[in-house]
Design a protein that fits this description.
The complex is a heterodimer of chains A (519) and B (363).
Chain A (H helix, E strand, L loop, with lengths): L3 E7 L3 E7 L5 E8 L5 H15 L6 E7 L2 H8 L6 E8 L13 H6 L2 E7 L14 H10 L6 E6 L7 H14 L5 E3 L8 H13 L1 H17 L5 E5 L5 E3 H6 L7 H14 L4 E6 L4 E7 L2 E2 L6 E3 L2 E3 L7 E3 L5 E5 L5 E7 L4 H4 L10 H7 L16 H22 L6 E6 L13 E5 L7 H8 L2 E10 L5 H19 L7 E9 L7 E10 L4
Parallel strand pairs in A: 1-4, 4-9, 5-6, 5-7, 7-8, 11-19, 19-20
Antiparallel strand pairs in A: 1-2, 2-3, 9-10, 11-12, 12-13, 12-16, 14-15, 17-18, 21-23, 22-23
Chain B lengths: L1 E3 L1 H14 L8 H14 L2 E4 L9 E9 L1 H6 L5 H14 L3 E6 L9 H9 L3 E2 L1 E2 L12 H4 L7 E4 L5 E4 L4 H14 L3 E5 L3 E2 H7 L1 E2 L1 H17 L5 H8 L2 E16 L2 E10 L7 E7 L1 E7 L2 E5 L3 E6 L16 E7 L8 H7 L13 H9 L1
Parallel strand pairs in B: 2-5, 3-4
Antiparallel strand pairs in B: 1-2, 3-9, 3-10, 6-11, 7-8, 7-9, 12-13, 12-18, 13-14, 14-15, 15-16, 17-18
The chains are: A alpha/beta (519), B alpha+beta (363).
Chain lengths: 519, 363
């Protein structure tokens, strides 16, 4: 690996950028405001970090972007592509039609055409019905010039993707070889509704993803940077531009994972709890074997139930700008509102009139920010009670995300982490790494490329070791396809879950492989 | 008689998760099926068993198979209609109503979908008053009723009617057929008269599920815990409030068995609770002292938001309230305890009603 790399992370408040050298040392870092159109903020951060680095731009080989554009499109119900929704599974599945659980306003915002055709598979790979190719062809013809993308979901596609692949071939035959088709087996796991929802969202993000990718590439070119562009995924790994345009839903919620990965890199810890303190909230997550731990339960994206894996985070409504209310008779209450980015005008220590968590920490001498004399009149005992209350909440949240009662290292990142003490209950040590305030952009820059597969195997037909080997091989192939170098690609996680009540000794095997970027 | 509409379905879903006592399967698919049917065909009448004539036919409707398969291969909706029509054709009698066989989990909502499509009422009753994992664990079996005939159907259009000699054979044959049908199928057994439902069913349980759901939603709206309301309505007890400090699971005979250890929150150190489950929560103990056991209902609620937690979601660090409710009287008979008491599930303890255990502990 030679050359420099740029990492950019778009957050709700700030867009951060860093440049790392070939030893992954931070040689430039900037924090800029996130702009409403996101792309402008990315361009600003890019030009500023390049200006401050003073390096030969031609030596920048890779540029990584973790961005909120796809998340915003779903949450704001804007800029969504027109889609054809095909479900393969009739006569099964008719009792719950596609899009049934999607909120009405999102459905309205998404121009869509729905068809359910015969086909799909049983849990053991038998066909429920032969694939109705004529019905698919007719559907594809009926949506010609009316849609920009298609979402295809077939029953038990994670066991047998054959019908989805054949449907995609028909769509491309009718609508052109470049027509984007999202296939559910590449996107989600067992659980038809959740996987179908994720596939629908993925297809609806086709246009946003293309503009995001092309916009970033154009911004790089505009700055004279000829680097390969990569995009952050929600599991803390990267994907190539081409892959990002195919699986834009994977870009959702990549921000918190970037912070977690950055914290892991900056501390060299493979296992730790990361406490990322912002202005309004504190996000607490877990690094397990160098990767963010994923949540075990279904996650909603913009009100849509999906079985998409997200980093398992506990978010507490406490940050540097959290407002403290003093009650007339003594006593107090903490938040949940925050002065947010207006901390520097609202907080007491900055000459404002609002008592914030920052003022409490300054008043107790925990940290030196602003004008500490403005907190002198406050009762120290009361401030201590408030501080203890806040820290107890954080400690409880740290305890919640741990997998056992053992004390673990806790890494503090984010601008507000300076307010925190050097001792926390349940923490074996507190670590405040250098560059802690741009850990997210560093996380984007140092990430590896990954691939993941999840399949159900019948152990009556396949030996367990053969099934695991097959799953590993497939995961590595997916990672390489996403942009990992084949030489460095290795399996980072294997999960093997027998399926309750299922005959035939069925087991679900999930494998994740990751490798370095192709040089 | 009253009607089950979309809002009632939401409430029943939440109540059915609680009455599922940690098992019963995620009712989400059942809810979505019921919602689609009610939107298409209109609200469903809910009738008490005594609102029907004693000799009218009532047909229980359920799904059998692997929950994982049900989430993936969602039913067609036709298979549920087929098992009903096959039963009617064989008995030469039209059904006056359908009913759920269990009130916990997904099977509490599926009959609503069939009822909507067939314009039939649903009887406000079931045969468990909670969820249990095995087919003979129904109140009809306790009263010596035989599941004969049994009808089954899959989404492909296959239908089967068979005459098992007893509940064990019914279960055995149904499981085999279910595998061939793709590990998820519709099943109807114990076709009954309304009079039999009245004497051998657990009555009022759909209303109860809806009331439980209403209490939880109301508390959520008012940003408070639903625990006290639930204890009052279901005559229950709060066994413990604490944090999960450990969960172990193992797969045994197709069931997930396990144990969760809870520790009291800061301030009450030393106290702990062990919660044993086999899909459903079956036993709660503090040290050597048993606090509650099956067939009484043991429920775990998220201590922050009051939502029932199924056993597959238990994990370290969760704050939970553990509640126990008396089982319906039919389960507290010697036969009921033999069929679904702690010893049946392999726990070497006698069944003692939860109210006696709580009273003894207070001594």
């Amino acid at each position: 690996m030679v050359g420099y790399r740029i990492g950019i992370d778009v957050g709700g408040t700030n867009t951060d950028a860093v440049i790392l050298d070939e030893q992954d040392r931070v040689i430039a870092q900037v924090k800029t405001a996130t702009t409403e159109d996101v792309a402008t903020g990315i361009e600003t951060a890019l030009s500023r970090v390049l200006a401050s680095a003073r390096i030969d731009r031609r030596q920048i080989r890779h540029a990584m972007l973790g961005t909120t554009q796809c998340t915003n499109a779903i949450v704001e119900r804007q800029r969504l592509s027109r889609i054809a929704v095909l479900r393969i599974g009739a006569p099964a599945t008719l009792a719950v039609e596609p899009l049934a659980g999607i909120p009405e306003d999102l459905k309205q915002a998404m121009i869509h055409y729905v068809e359910i055709v015969r086909g799909g598979h049983e849990f053991d790979g038998r066909e429920i019905a032969p694939l109705d190719t004529e019905a698919i062809r007719a559907f594809a013809q009926s949506v010609k010039n009316r849609v920009d993308a298609a979402a295809v979901t077939s029953v038990f596609a994670p066991v047998s993707p054959d019908h989805e692949e054949r449907a995609a071939a028909i769509f491309r035959d009718v609508l052109g070889a470049d027509f984007p088709v999202s296939l559910s087996y590449r996107i989600g796991s067992i659980g038809l509704i959740e996987r179908e929802n994720a596939t629908i969202l993925n297809a609806a993000l086709t246009g946003v993803a293309r503009r995001t990718v092309q916009g970033f590439e154009a911004a790089l070119a505009g700055q004279g940077v000829n680097a390969l562009a990569f995009f952050g995924q929600n599991d803390g790994t990267l994907m190539s531009a081409e892959y990002a345009m195919q699986y834009p839903i994977r870009m959702i919620a990549c921000g918190p994972t970037n912070s977690l990965r950055g914290a892991s890199y900056l501390t060299g810890l493979e296992n730790a709890v990361v406490v990322d303190v912002g202005g309004t909230t504190t996000d607490i997550g877990v690094i397990a074997n160098g990767f963010p731990r994923e949540s075990a339960v279904a996650v909603e994206i913009g009100g849509v139930r999906t079985n998409f894996r997200m980093p398992d985070l506990v978010s507490v409504g406490i940050g540097g700008g959290t407002v403290i209310h003093l009650k007339p008779g003594g006593g107090f209450s903490v938040g949940p509102e925050s002065v947010g980015y207006r901390l520097t005008e609202k907080a007491l220590v900055f000459g404002g009139d609002t008592l914030t968590f920052t003022d409490v920490a300054v008043g107790l001498g925990k940290v030196a920010i602003g004008d500490s004399t403005r907190t002198a009149s406050l009762d120290k005992e009361l401030l201590m009670a408030i501080y203890r209350d806040i820290i107890a909440r954080i400690e409880e949240a740290v305890d919640r995300v741990k997998v056992s009662g053992d004390a673990v290292p806790v890494v503090l990142t984010g601008g507000g982490s300076a307010l925190f003490p050097d001792v926390l209950a349940g923490a074996s040590q507190i670590i405040r790494p250098a560059h802690f305030n741009v850990a997210n952009a560093i996380g984007a820059a140092i990430a590896q490329v990954s691939g993941e597969i999840e399949r159900v195997y019948s152990l009556e037909k396949t030996a367990r070791t053969a099934a695991v080997e097959d799953a590993k091989r497939r995961a590595v192939a997916v990672a390489v396809e996403a942009g990992a170098s084949p030489e460095t690609c290795h399996v980072v996680d294997i999960e093997d879950v027998p399926l309750a009540y299922l005959p035939g000794n069925a087991t679900r095997i999930k494998v994740k492989a990751a490798g370095d970027l192709v040089g | 008689m009253r009607y089950i509409d979309e809002q009632a379905i939401e409430r029943i879903t939440l109540g059915a998760t609680l009455l599922g006592t940690g098992g019963g399967g995620d009712p989400y698919i059942g809810k979505m099926m019921a919602l689609q049917a009610v939107r298409r065909y209109g609200p469903v009448a809910l009738v008490a068993a005594d609102e029907l004539s004693r000799d009218e036919l009532v047909v229980p409707i359920s799904m059998i198979g692997a929950p994982t398969v049900l989430w993936e291969k969602i039913p067609s909706g036709r298979e549920m209609v087929k098992i009903l029509e096959l039963m009617e054709a064989h008995l030469g009698k039209r059904a006056a109503a359908v009913m759920p066989i269990e009130i916990g989990g997904v099977n509490s909502l599926i009959p609503i979908a069939v009822a909507a499509e067939k314009s039939l009422p649903v009887v406000d009753a079931d045969a468990m008053g909670r969820a249990f994992p095995e087919a003979q664990m129904v109140s009809f079996y306790l009263d010596g009723l035989v599941p004969n005939p049994v009808t089954m159907a899959d989404e492909k259009g296959n239908t089967v009617l068979f005459h098992p000699v007893d509940a064990v054979w019914s279960e055995r044959l149904a499981r085999s057929l279910t595998v061939q049908m793709g590990a998820s199928a519709a099943m109807s057994d114990y076709a009954l008269t309304a009079g039999q439902v009245l004497t051998s069913g657990i009555l009022g349980t759909l209303s109860l599920a809806e009331e439980v759901g209403r209490l939880i939603l109301e508390a959520r709206r008012e940003n408070r815990s639903p625990v006290q309301d639930l204890l009052d309505t279901l005559h229950g007890f709060r066994l413990f409030t604490g944090k999960i400090s450990d969960v172990t699971r193992r797969l045994e005979g197709g069931f997930t068995k396990g144990e969760a250890i809870l520790e009291a929150l800061t301030g009450k150190t030393g106290e702990s609770l062990s919660l044993y489950f086999q899909n459903e929560y079956l036993l709660a103990a503090s040290g050597d002292r048993i606090l509650a056991s099956t067939p009484d209902l043991i429920v775990a609620l998220d201590a922050d938001v009051g939502t029932p937690i199924t056993s597959d979601r238990l994990k370290y660090g969760m704050r939970v309230d553990i509640l126990a409710f008396p089982a319906p009287p039919k389960w507290r008979t010697p036969k009921g305890i033999e069929v679904a008491g702690p010893r049946y599930f392999g726990y070497d303890v006698d069944y003692v009603p939860v109210e006696h255990r709580v009273a003894a502990a207070a001594q």
